[in-house]
Structure formats: C-alpha cells, structure tokens
Design goal:
Elements lengths: L2 H40 L4 E16 L5 E15 L11 H5 L3 H5 L7 H30 L1 E3 L6 E2 L4 H5 L6 E5 L2 E2 L3 H9 L6 E7 L2 E7 L2 E7 L2 E7 L2 E2 L7 E3 L3 H27 L11 H35 L7 H14 L5 H36 L1
Antiparallel strand pairs: 1-2, 3-12, 4-11, 5-6, 5-7, 7-8, 9-10
C-alpha cells in the first residue's frame, strides 16, 4: 500500500469514527454529570454551570435557576460547577466561602454536610451504572437473546480442554459455582480467564463430573485491536441449535444488572492480573482507541451495537470515577472519609497537594493510553 492510499483510507476511517465517538461519549458524560446535577439540586445546592466538554464555549443558554448549560470545544468530558467551587473539579474556594453571606453559604457545595456532599459526588457513577443496566435490559427485553446450549460439540486435539478431560457431548452446568445457561456465558468467562484455573461441572451420561481446566493464553487480532484472551479449544454446537429466548421486563432488568456486574468483575479481574504481572498494560485504551472502536461498531452493527458500546463505556466510566484518586469522584469520597474520621476537613494545603497528585496520575494514564492507541493504530496500518 502506498503512502497516499494509506493516508486517504486513514482519513476516511478517522472521520467515520468521529461522529459515533462523539455520540457515545456525549451520552455517557451527560448522564454522569446529570447524576451530580440532579442530586445537587435535590440537596438545595446552587449550580453555576453544566458543561459537556472543556475549553471555549460553542453554544449555551441559562435556565430559570441561573445555571449555564453549555457545549464546549474539547468534547473529552464534562463537569458541573456548584456554588462555592473554585472550578469544575469541585475544589473548594476558601476565600470565596469566607466572604459569603449566610444565604450564599446555605446553597454552597463545600458548606453542605458530609452526607450531602458524598451523595452528590457518588451520584455521577451511580447514574452511569443505572444507564448501563437500563440499556442492557432494554436490548434484552426488546430483542431477546439467541442462546446455544453450553454443550461440547468437538474438542481441538492437544488443547487445554483435551488435557483437562473434557469429552464430546459434555454439557457445562457451572463454572466456579456460577450456573451456565448457554454457550455464550461460558465463552465470556473462559475468554476473560486466560491462565486462570476454572472449576467446571459438566453433565456426562446423566452424572455430574467435576473438571479443572486452565484456559491457555491466546492473542487475537481484530478490527478493534489486539487482545489476549483465554482459550480452551471447545467447539460450540451448530448455529441451527440456537433458539431465541425472550424475557419480560422484570427478568430483563435482572439480566441487565447481571451484565453490568459481569463487566465490573471482568474489569477488576484484568486490573488484578495487571498488578500481579499476569496481564499486559498495552490493552488500555484512550480517546483514540474508543473513537476507533466506535467507528467500527457503528459500521458493523449500527445503532444497536453503538447502544451496547454506550452501556459498556458507561460502566467503565462509572467504575473509573470511583477509584480513590484525588480529582476523580472516588478521591473526593476519600477526602470525606478522612473528614469523618478526623472530625474536620483536611487542610486546604493537603487537599491542594492531593488534587495535584491526582491530576498528574490522570494525565500520565491518559498519555499512556493514547500511546497504546497510536501503537495499535500503527499496527493496523502495517497490516492493511
């Protein structure tokens, strides 16, 4: 492939990813900030601004409460600025608070009780989890699910499954105590457990047989980048055996919760393996990677697949914001915990240092993720 052709294809792919990326990120950020906003209003806190994006304002308006709703030029996040905040990160402005009248202090965020401040802060991630549950549940309720029985139709020779003692015809009933209703559930657990021993119970000739198997590590290349997954070497039943299973609203909601919990568990599993050196950090993605995935998902699966991506990203954003890193929601909650234990807030100097450290950590993570995205993008160019 020549340089001009490569650049032309890259430009087309880039612009084809921008709109889906902005759609996905804007929905997730809007819901997150709306969680902060609504609980803040319910707690009687004044709100100066509700912003999607950072930097110069592109469009905006003031509501009847005096809140400025705006869309800004850098669409990589958002914020709600409450009365008494020095900025959108809810860093207290001590000088401004000292000059406030009693009426102003009553609607100021930093002067609220710890319980109210914690509720406002945690509302953002909670809103993300609720969004994910509703999207997962809605997709299941409206479209049902195609399900294959979790039966072993064939086994690859010399595979992890063959070594563990699986036999053709085995019906997998549970993995590590979790019931397995279909083949897709088994597939997701196995692919997310590379190198981790799993305790299976299979039905064979009418009897339950325990099997311990460790999925081998397999690296696959897809349109969405390189991924290391677990692999047993088990073949699924034929597609003709799949059946469409429909669920009512209550059952769908339960499955939506289950899907959300599954994403959280897989995330913690990956982070645990990352810390112990059993997983590589090169799978972390930033805005470039999310944009690339958004474009591919929109092209391959349309709006339905994009909605699924919104649900996944919403869980990730909600979980990330709960990490105890100053500047993130979890960092604020950490400071409030110290305040409860000490009986008074941390000093302004301590909070300032914490926020600077948090900002540095977030920037390093963003740079590292962006570097991974660039390397993956370069690999895809070379493979084209």
């Amino acid at each position: 492939m020549d340089f001009l052709t490569a650049m032309g294809g890259t430009a087309t792919g880039f612009f084809g990813a921008v709109i889906p990326f902005l759609f996905v990120l804007t929905v997730v950020v809007f819901v997150h900030e709306m969680g902060h906003f609504l609980v803040g209003r319910w707690c009687g806190v004044g709100v100066h601004a509700f912003s999607i994006g950072f930097g110069p304002e592109l469009v905006g308006f003031n509501d009847r409460h005096g809140t400025r709703w705006k869309l800004c030029a850098i669409p990589l996040g958002g914020y709600v600025k409450f009365h008494g905040d020095a900025n959108g990160a809810s860093i207290p402005d001590a000088d401004t608070i000292a000059r406030m009248t009693p009426q102003e202090r009553a609607i100021s965020f930093p002067t609220q009780s710890v319980a109210k401040r914690a509720a406002i802060v945690v509302a953002g991630p909670v809103a993300n989890f609720i969004l994910a549950i509703l999207l997962f549940a809605g997709a299941i309720w409206l479209g049902g699910r195609l399900e294959l029985p979790a039966r072993v139709s064939a086994i690859d020779p010399s595979s992890a499954a063959a070594q563990a003692g699986f036999q053709t015809g085995d019906l997998v009933k549970s993995i590590d105590g979790e019931p397995i209703p279909d083949f897709n559930t088994m597939y997701r657990i196995v692919t997310g457990s590379a190198g981790t021993p799993l305790n299976f119970v299979v039905e064979r000739a009418g009897a339950d047989v325990p099997i311990v198997a460790t999925p081998s590590v397999y690296e696959e290349s897809t349109k969405f980048g390189r991924h290391r997954i677990g692999r047993l070497g088990i073949r699924s039943p034929a597609a003709s055996e799949a059946k469409l299973v429909t669920y009512g609203p209550v059952a769908s909601l339960g499955l939506g919760v289950h899907e959300t919990v599954f994403v959280v568990e897989r995330t913690f599993s990956y982070l645990g393996k990352l810390v112990t050196g059993r997983e590589s950090a090169d799978q972390l993605s930033g805005p470039i990677g999310i944009a690339r995935v958004s474009g591919e998902v929109a092209k391959v699966g349309g709006i339905g697949a994009l909605i699924g991506l919104i649900a996944l990203l919403s869980v990730s954003i909600g979980l990330l914001n709960l990490f105890p890193v100053p500047l993130l929601d979890g960092g604020h909650l950490l400071f409030y915990a110290f305040e409860v234990v000490r009986g008074r807030p941390l000093s302004e100097r301590a909070q300032e240092i914490g926020f600077r450290v948090g900002l540095a950590l977030v920037l390093v993570l963003m740079i590292f993720a962006a570097w991974n995205d660039i390397l993956n993008l370069g690999a895809s160019w070379r493979a084209t």
